[in-house]
Amino acid sequence: MLNTDPIPAPNARLKDAANWRYLLKEFYEMYRHLPSGGSDRIRAHLRNAREAISRVQKANPEMSFDPPCNLPVTDHLGRALDEGRQDRMAPVVRTLERVAPELSWRYGYEKVPRGLARSYGYAEIAGPSGPIVTDEIILGVVLFAPDCTYPAHAHKGITESYICLSGAVSENHQGVYAAGSLIHNPPEHLHRITVGRDEPALLAYAWCGAREDLAGQKMNFSRPRGPKA
User: Fold this and answer.
1) How far is CA 165 from CA 86, 93, 205, 220, 224, in A?
2) Is the pLDDT of residue 221 over 70?
3) Which DSSP category does 88 fall into?
4) Structural domain boundaries of the chain?
5) pLDDT tens digit string along 181-191?
6) Strand partners, 216
7) Which among 140, 158, 195, 223 could disulfide-bond with 124, CB atoms 3.0 to 4.6 Å apart, if both were Cys?
8) Helices in 75-128 by DSSP H: which ranges?
């Protein structure tokens, strides 16, 4: 769908950016209705995420847009959105589609790991750098091309969740997560993601943590150390 809606004017606030306001609402609804599977830790994270989103909604923060930017992986975005509209995550996928032309896709690393330059990118929805400016939480989407392997990494002081919007991924070879699934990564948890060979994967994510951790978060790739010879 071609988005013909105007980009919010400079100094606009969330209330002035209807599509972004609706997208934030869809994130809230995801974290309100997703099951915890009986896990107290996941239940607490779902609550923390939606309470942070609620605070952002009430604060009516400023909007700050970087110029729209695509990466090689965004060649797969149309397919990922098409697949997502057919599944249980259709409401958030359709709302995401409305703002897709305004997204600024990034790598997030000074030196992109080999193999990721054409198969990975993320776009932030809310966080210290915008577009919805907040220090309460970081929300965004990440897109993986088919057959992508996202190297092992961890987040200092950050509890992370992925919600699969379309496609399927595996984390640490411990299960397959399709549309509607949630992956929970506590702070310092080393995790590696692999993607199916035939379809891209589009995931929403939320990072919860202290304001200083959210503001200074950087990704570090690590490889497990083998036994010394």
Assistant:
1) 10, 7, 10, 25, 29
2) no
3) T
4) 14-221
5) 999 999 988 99
6) none
7) 140
8) 77-84, 90-99
